[in-house]
Automatic annotation (TrEMBL):
<feature type="domain" description="HEPN">
    <location>
        <begin position="11"/>
        <end position="125"/>
    </location>
</feature>
<dbReference type="Pfam" id="PF05168">
    <property type="entry name" value="HEPN"/>
</dbReference>
<protein>
    <submittedName>
        <fullName>HEPN domain-containing protein</fullName>
    </submittedName>
</protein>
<dbReference type="InterPro" id="IPR007842">
    <property type="entry name" value="HEPN_dom"/>
</dbReference>
Length: 125
């Protein structure tokens, strides 16, 4: 698979996970919505790293991926958004782990706030 094809595949999956999260949120599946939001952002950031000519690490940390993107792109907006959404990014990282190992209930308000953060990050980095 070419780099361009991999980028397109990652972006398509990212969009699908975001759409899935929106549906899961609407029906009250908040734990699944959080996991889907994490996947949407993680895949998006990996695509953006590839677009910047950098192979992404085999990390699942959206915070680490965002930090790496800020360094390689030298885009100060990435750093600003990282600081602005640090709490929400932490919730996403927890969601990735808890989806597999530990039951965790999320409130609708948490999911809504995280979804807004993910959408802002995707729109601006």
């Amino acid at each position: 698979m070419s780099r361009k094809e991999e980028i397109e595949m990652l972006l398509t999956r990212s969009r699908r996970f975001l759409e899935t999260a929106e549906h899961q949120y609407e029906v009250g599946y908040y734990d699944l919505a959080m996991f889907s939001l994490e996947q949407a952002l993680q895949l998006f950031l990996k695509a953006r790293l590839l677009q910047n000519g950098v192979d992404y690490p085999r990390s699942h940390s959206v915070t680490a991926l965002l930090e790496m993107l800020g360094k390689v792109s030298q885009n100060k907006e990435v750093d600003r958004l990282l600081e602005k959404h640090l709490t929400e990014l932490g919730l996403l990282e927890d969601a990735y782990i808890t989806a597999r190992y530990v039951p965790r209930l999320y409130r609708g308000e948490e999911v809504k706030k995280v979804m807004e953060s993910v959408k802002e990050l995707i729109a601006n980095v």
